[in-house]
Design brief:
- The strands form four sheets. Strands 1, 5, 6, 11, 14 and 16 form a six-stranded antiparallel sheet that branches.
- It is globular and about 75 Å long.
- It is an alpha+beta fold and 344 residues long.
- The relative contact order is 0.18.
- The N terminus is likely disordered.
- β8 and β9 form a beta hairpin.
- It is built from five helices and 16 strands.
């Protein structure tokens, strides 16, 4: 009898370990440029996260050279810094961008420079990926940057931006997430008094901003957000049975950072660095060996996720095309008075 009771107690204590999850949502040290796309000999894209948007160009005529250049990735220097509308002056926008930075401790990390207004009023800057990170991207990228569709479908393995398991970090997407208990951001502070928030997007497309606190630190710091509404005690939770198939694919994706500057604090140039973002969460469903493969019979998840993937691709694809066309129209001549102008 004692052995039975001991086994029951051990099983009860072990449940939270198996029911919960923990993972690196995005690791910027893995987003260094390692492949060259288009002209030039310097790496300008990240192979693992490369996306091809040439198939959404519509009826507009593009040459093969143009289509080859219609590829982008989550490479660090592709990320966008968006300022508050009141701060979008040419000088502020030109001096707000991301850049690869070499860290002795972590290797390559994301460096962020923001030029806030110097006037005494509130302002903010948002650091976002160049496109919304796809949750269902079942493709692979060759060494030459060719993006091809994999043959394993949607349910037989993780998508390209998910973790491959065994503690490997994700590239912006973690599946099977129910309630987030904690969020941790590792960043390098330079004693600025600004406030940092993390933006996460759920499977319904809802964006939530989580306040990580101030950035008045010197050196690397792990800022942690603890969910104030998280119920640690199971008996206090609202317990209910939820339908499984085909509703068991919730996820969380990384949406960016928000940096807020108070009117009373210093304006002008602001610099910081980011290493990664991690989360601790409750799993939506437990892994179970079920008698019937529901997806093999009905294919509902594949149809739904194929439609969502197509929508995601078209959404970022059209934006990328507009940027590409604007870049093609941009003046390339050297400025008047440049020492190399006469050699052209």
């Amino acid at each position: 009898m004692k052995k039975v009771l001991i086994l029951i107690v051990i099983a009860m204590l072990a449940v939270p370990l198996f029911a919960g999850g923990e993972g690196v949502l995005i690791d910027f040290s893995l987003l260094a440029a390692d492949i060259t796309i288009g002209e030039g000999d310097r790496p300008n894209q990240n192979q693992r996260t490369l996306m091809d948007f040439s198939h959404v160009t519509g009826g507009t005529a593009f040459s093969d050279r143009h289509r080859d250049a219609m590829r982008t990735s989550l490479a660090i220097e592709n990320w966008e810094v968006t300022l508050a509308s009141s701060a979008r002056f040419p000088t502020n926008m030109a001096n707000s961008f991301t850049r690869e930075a070499a860290s002795r401790q972590f290797g390559t990390v994301m460096g962020v420079r923001v030029h806030f207004p110097t006037e005494p009023h509130n302002s903010w800057a948002m650091i976002r990926p160049p496109f919304e990170i796809p949750a269902f991207e079942m493709t692979e990228v060759d060494a030459d940057g060719t993006v091809t569709r994999t043959q394993n479908g949607f349910t037989s393995g993780p998508s390209r931006f998910e973790s491959s398991g065994d503690g490997e970090p994700a590239f912006g997407v973690i599946k099977n997430v129910a309630v987030i208990r904690e969020i941790m951001v590792r960043f390098y502070g330079l004693n600025f008094p600004h406030r940092l928030s993390v933006i996460l997007i759920d499977s319904q497309g809802n964006e939530r901003t989580h306040n990580m606190g101030h950035m008045r630190h010197d050196g690397w710091i792990s800022a942690v957000w603890v969910n104030p509404a998280y119920m640690q005690e199971v008996r206090n939770r609202d317990l209910r049975l939820m339908p499984l198939y085909p509703f068991n694919t919730p996820f969380t994706k990384f949406g960016g950072f928000l940096i807020q500057r108070d009117a009373a604090h210093i304006g002008g140039d602001f610099v910081t660095y980011f290493k990664d973002v991690s989360i601790i969460y409750d799993r939506a469903t437990l892994d179970q060996d079920r008698d019937i493969d529901d997806e093999a019979v009905w294919g509902i998840i594949q149809q739904r996720e194929e439609a969502r993937k197509t929508w995601e691709m078209e959404r970022f694809g059209h934006d990328q095309i507009l940027r590409f066309l604007e870049q093609e129209r941009q003046a390339t001549a050297l400025p008047f008075g440049h020492p190399d102008r006469e050699q052209q």
